[in-house]
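Hi V.,

Quick status before I head out on leave. The structure for the redesign project is tokenized and pasted below; the design run finished overnight.
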């Protein structure tokens, strides 16, 4: 039987600040956010996919304004996973958007994983922003008929008490998603404390999600968290999944329609054996890649 995030009330509004864990209880709160930012393109109706299509190739003056608005949203979180980020090409004004958001939102650690490099035209990437220093970062190339999908695997800490976090953006086709999640399940094997977040392009009751939950210890996602399309959310395709060792305090979709996806947020309480140390520096650190693996 799949475990569920019991006791969690999903919502579609901003999550209010939670009280910090009591001193001496040995626990720590972690605020997580997953956001498909559509390369900083503002989309508020279906026709924009046609009328704004040129923005996927050419620079747009309002793109930085959108990124600044996104930076304001993400600044209250500890770790942020980004999808559909541009790694620095013509359409973004040759600005690495993950790096830009890290500076604007004052995250000391950032990492960009480019999965589909179209040279000067576009660099389709995943991004990680963190106030905590990872001990290892691994790029995973996921299988698919069309190359360009990946997962970013980040480890905080060492040994059995390490926290494993995976950021990913899965394919549009079901067959490819099943293969990709098989790879992710294998990647997570043997890890006790796990967080998986991203745009999975499938719902909580899909065949793909069922396959992932059966092969891992991840808890089933909360129901009713509609993130797409942002102007009239009807589909639950963005998720944050956790292992049962992490206590979920709240989960919500944030009502900030900038890209065609809404961000999803979660607050978790870490077990006492996990201790993350928050950096007080606001310096710009690009995390070194530890390994690149072809799944």
């Amino acid at each position: 039987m799949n475990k569920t995030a019991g006791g969690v009330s999903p919502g579609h509004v901003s999550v209010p600040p939670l009280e910090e864990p009591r001193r001496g209880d040995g626990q720590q709160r972690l605020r997580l956010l997953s956001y498909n930012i559509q390369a900083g393109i503002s989309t508020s109706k279906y026709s924009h996919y046609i009328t704004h299509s040129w923005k996927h190739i050419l620079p747009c003056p309002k793109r930085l304004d959108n990124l600044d608005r996104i930076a304001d949203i993400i600044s209250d979180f500890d770790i942020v996973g980004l999808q559909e980020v541009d790694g620095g090409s013509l359409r973004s004004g040759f600005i690495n958007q993950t790096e830009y958001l890290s500076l604007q939102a004052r995250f000391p650690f950032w990492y960009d994983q480019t999965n589909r490099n179209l040279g000067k035209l576009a660099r389709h990437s995943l991004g990680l922003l963190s106030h905590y220093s990872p001990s290892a970062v691994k790029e995973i190339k996921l299988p698919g008929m069309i190359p360009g999908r990946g997962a970013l695997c980040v480890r905080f800490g060492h040994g059995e008490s390490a926290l494993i976090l995976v950021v990913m953006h899965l394919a549009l086709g079901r067959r490819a998603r099943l293969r990709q999640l098989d790879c992710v399940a294998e990647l997570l094997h043997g890890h006790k404390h796990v967080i998986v977040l991203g745009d999975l392009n499938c719902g909580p009751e899909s065949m793909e999600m069922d396959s992932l939950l059966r092969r891992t210890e991840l808890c089933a996602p909360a129901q009713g968290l509609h993130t797409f399309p942002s102007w009239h959310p009807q589909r639950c395709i963005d998720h944050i999944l956790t292992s049962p060792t992490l206590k979920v305090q709240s989960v919500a979709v944030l009502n900030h329609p900038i890209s065609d996806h809404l961000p999803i947020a979660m607050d978790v309480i870490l077990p006492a054996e996990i201790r993350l140390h928050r950096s007080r520096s606001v310096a710009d650190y690009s995390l070194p890649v530890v390994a690149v693996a072809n799944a």
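Above is the designed sequence. The helical segments are 48-51, 63-74, 97-104, 174-188, 207-215.

G. will cover questions while I'm gone.

Best,
W.
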